[in-house]
Design brief:
With 193 residues, the chain is of the alpha/beta class. It has a single domain, classed as Aminopeptidase. Helices cover 32% and strands 22% of the residues. The chain contains five helices and eight strands, in the order βαβαββββαβαβα. The protein has helices spanning 22-30, 52-66, 124-133, 148-159, 177-192, and strands at 6-12, 42-48, 70-76, 83-86, 88-90, 117-119, 138-141, 165-171. The strands form two sheets. A six-stranded mixed sheet has the order 2-1-3-8-4-7, sandwiched between helices. Helix 1 (22-30) crosses helix 5 (177-192).
Length: 193
């Protein structure tokens, strides 16, 4: 990746309880960035439906066609007060929490037969340090939830080749769009470094 990685950034649309998702606004704003400004050689953004099946179909298609080196998923953490840099994906989802289409996997797993936990491959400590230098409230988290966010992280980690960096960032609802965008730029530069 000496010339810079191919970077994929995702966010989510609305879901039950969140009729407006700030990560959708964020990803659309990031779409106008030049890859080089983020340390990437190529850059793609996509807003995923908060739907277990549709979002995964979309991601698999992008993984095949774009073949990113670095993947940063953004999601909303409704009760958070700071940015959460997730460190693990867990093969557990709540079958009582339906997605935007009303569906929830009955078995309560992100991937049948997969390992219980998978560690992120993004440089979480470096991302945290970069945010702290910018005086952005952030912390490392080992709980990406039990919903579509965690399922997306887990599935992305499960199929990632060894060289792909994958991670998930939860943003709090109290950040302004401008502050979220500035923090995201810092996160993506650290992820691509």
């Amino acid at each position: 990746m000496s010339a810079g990685p191919k970077l994929l950034v995702t966010g989510f649309g609305p879901f039950p309880g969140a009729p407006q998702n700030p990560t959708e606004v964020l990803v659309k704003a990031l779409g106008g960035e030049q890859p080089g400004s983020l340390g990437a050689i190529a850059f793609k953004t996509v807003v995923l439906s908060t739907d277990y099946r549709r979002s995964w179909e979309t991601l698999r298609r992008i993984y095949r066609r774009f073949e990113p080196d670095v993947v940063v998923h953004f999601g909303l953490a409704g009760k958070a007060k700071a940015i959460h840099i997730e460190t693990v994906g867990i093969n557990l989802i709540d079958p009582k929490k339906p997605d935007i289409s009303g569906y929830a996997p009955r078995l309560g797993q992100a991937r049948r037969g997969g390992p219980k936990r998978l560690s992120v491959t993004l440089p979480a400590d470096s991302i945290l340090a970069a945010l702290k230098r910018e005086r952005v409230e952030a912390l490392l988290s080992d709980d990406a939830g039990d919903y579509v966010c965690n399922a997306t992280l887990y599935r992305s980690l499960h199929i990632a080749p060894g060289s792909r960096r994958v991670g998930f960032i939860h943003v709090p609802p109290n950040l302004t769009p401008a502050a979220t965008l500035a923090a995201a730029r810092t996160i993506l530069r650290a992820a691509c470094h």
